[in-house]
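Human: You know discrete backbone vocabularies at least as well as I do. Show me how you would write down a chain together with its backbone fold. No explanation is needed for now; the record alone will do.

Assistant:
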Amino acid sequence: MASHRRPRQPSRTRVTALTATAAAAVALTSQAAHADPKPSKSEVKAKVDKLYEEAEAATESYNGAKEKQGKLTKEVSNLQDTVARGQQDLNSLRNGLGSMATAQYRGGGIDPSLQLFLSSDPDNYLDKASTLDQLSAKQVKALKKIQNKQRTLAQQRSQASSKLKNLAETRKELGDKKKSIQAKLSKAQRLLNSLSAKEREAIQKKEERANRDSSDRVDLGGDASASQRAAAALAAAKSKIGSPYVWGATGPSSFDCSGLTSWAFNQAGVSIPRTSQAQTGAGTRVGRDALKPGDLVFFYGDLHHVGFYAGNGQILHAPKPGASVRYESINNMPFQFGARVG
């Protein structure tokens, strides 16, 4: 006997769930179809180079803060030593005055300077005592020495406190800049890691070829340096061709851009500032057409990169993270001006 029951209809809840699942699948497919394509090797390389440039700018800023920290640390230490010596001198003056007062007291008199010895406010007491004309000339002279010494110590303590505050702020600034540099370098590394092993190898080989070609095939022409010191500094920098770029490094085995130039001039017996921006004032400014081997050359609008002019349109510098000290065309970066030192 045939069944007359109507076929079971799917529940409304089940239909809604199936519809939602189908819609989600369609949406995912659509998103995948319209997703941004994976960046090419050249695009990744361009982004990495930009990050390296930003990291180098931050490095020069870090170098400046580090140099400031060193100076402040020395100044604070000197001030603290001065304050300590001044306190010892003040204690000796007070002891001397106290001995004077004690001697008078034992002799039968009560000298008001004994009160000073026990007073926490010698300035105020000196004013009162002098009006009473109760002190000897010798005691007045000793009191005035104490008064002057206390004023000097108060000023020196205030200076030391201000320097310590500045030092704490500089240390924080230094830490922030270091984090910024490391963040940019980490981002650059993540971008490189997104490439295939073959693509990364191609980039590395290109960099190695640039390092090798710079020393093997470069033609520096025959121009002479403007001074013996400039020639000696350039020769010192040439001896470091192949040394790696490391941010914050000043040699002798690794360098950042201004670390190389300051180290090289130091080998020539010339002291120049640590950072690229400060090195712009180390010599006489010269234009591109007047450059001679050994002149400093500065790049980018904020002057965050420096190197040596090597001759025939070539510079010698510590280029960027992942590269070594090498020659490159002066046209590879936006040249600003040169500086002749010595």
